[in-house]
Amino acid sequence: MAGLLPVAEAQARVLALGTPVPSVDVALDAALGRWATAPIVARRTQPSRDLSAMDGYALRFADLPGPLTVIGESAAGAPFPGAIAAGEAVRIFTGAAMPAGADTVLVQEEAGRDGAILTLAGDGPAHVGRNVRRRGLDFAEGDILVAAGERLTPARLAVAATGGVARVPVAKPVRVALAATGDELVEPGTPGDALPESNRLLLRSLLAGSGAEIVDLGILPDRLETLTEAFATVEADVLVTTGGASVGDHDLVRPALLAAGATLDFWRIALRPGKPMLAGRRGAMAVVGLPGNPVSAFVTALLFVRPLVAHLGGAAHPFPPVSRMLLGEDLPANGERTDYLRAEIRDGRAFASTIQDSSMLLTLARSTCLIVREPHAPPARAGDSAEVLIIA
Ligand SMILES: Nc1nc2c(c(=O)[nH]1)N[C@H]1C(S)=C(S)[C@@H](COP(=O)(O)OP(=O)(O)OC[C@H]3O[C@@H](n4cnc5c(N)ncnc54)[C@H](O)[C@@H]3O)O[C@H]1N2
Ligand code: MOO
Fold first, then answer.
1. pLDDT tens digits, residue range 282-304?
2. Where is the MoaB/Mog domain (predicted)?
3. Does ligand 2 come within 6 angstroms of the Cβ of 268?
4. Taking every pair of C-alpha atoms in the chain, what is the biggest distance, in angstroms?
5. Is the complex ipTM more than 0.85?
6. Where are the domains of the chain?
């Protein structure tokens, strides 16, 4: 279709519309889901000294099979103060410091104990150093624990804490203004038969846990003056609208944005669902106008809005990761738009839903992935490998 922007080009242009957000240091507890804006470097070595990996006896490997004399105890947080000499052992527990002179731990299941006398009751350690965690096994002071641009996952926060880091550099919250448009829409839970508005909830949920701060503009009516006023006065890093993006007489988002002083970068993408998406700027604020159909709003939010917010939040890899999956059924040749087919994964295979209508939320809700079909892709066969985006 002439004039429609390819998806990858549209994605690059949307990222370029954003204005970088400054960094700030926050406590680890406030950083989950955000991105490190600078490398997080270990301030300590882990473990900071040689530790036992097991409950048992610290000894000198050369002294085995013994018998040995137990001269004391080393517990985590209460190390044995002295050193062991030839023929001696120290009772030791997991995580406790190795006493000076010991090089190996005999696990207690393979030890015989009679008073202070320790004997070998099994095969014993296979080699010197067995069951000892050497100083620096995990990382050393100065090592990079989290690279700039990486997401702060639970494990990365835990390694930062272990590295002696209490505050981490992240982007300030990205302010995302959300506006639904449409005279037919009511807030969810409103009695009656009117259409509950669901796109803002979808967007809030997709952005949850990424450090975004939502500026809620609510449901706006299909009135040019009201939309213009809202778009001209909102203050945010990103404005996301839904609905009113197409060509109907009541599709007023584009004229309202222009009247509000925004400039449009593009309108309409070679994408199904989501063709009528538009993008531009008003001053330093990026503007993304999503189509109103809920599935179109979901797909465009996944491909454009969440990556833009991640990019402004410092993400090195803001786009949704692509996986591969075998197709469960044949697929017909594709048309000129990149298609994101709602599909379910069963037994490791992706089955596309029979009806791919962009208004059908239940189909989307039941889907676990989107099958990506490139423009003009030839027919595909069951068992072929296909690109998918995992969505649930
Ligand atoms: N003559 C043409 N008509 C349409 C075209 C076209 O190229 N030529 N494109 C179609 C495509 S593709 C899409 S997608 C839709 C998108 O249109 P709009 O962005 O203008 O969306 P609306 O008309 O406002 O709404 C579409 C549909 O979705 C419902 N909706 C809207 N907002 C919400 C919301 N926040 N929560 C729940 N549901 C919502 C709305 O009631 C409509 O049913 O245009 C095609 N038309
Ligand atoms: O391309 Mo529209 O987004 O499907 O229904």
1. 999 999 999 999 999 999 999 99
2. 177-311
3. no
4. 94
5. yes
6. 7-22+172-312, 34-46+139-170, 51-133, 323-390
Residues 107 and 143: their CA atoms lie apart, in Å, by 32
Pocket of ligand 2, candidates 1, 268, 269, 293: which has the most ligand atoms within 8 Å of its Cβ, to mutate?
A: 293
Strand 271-272, strand 323-327: pairing: unpaired
Q: Which fold has domain 51-133?
A: Molybdopterin biosynthesis moeA protein; domain 3 (2.170.190)
pLDDT tens for each residue of 201-238? 999 999 999 999 999 999 999 999 999 999 999 999 99
Instruction: For residues 63 and 86, give the distance between their C-alpha atoms in angstroms, rounded to a whole number.
Output: 7
CA distance 47 to 86: 26
Q: Residue 230 Cα, ligand 2 centroid: separation in angstroms?
A: 25
Find out whether the beta carbon of 199 lies less than 6 Å from any atom of ligand 1. Answer: yes
Q: Residue 1 pLDDT > 70, yes or no?
A: no
Structure tokens at 356: 């791919």
Instruction: Tell me the residue type at 40.
Output: I
pLDDT of residue 249: 87
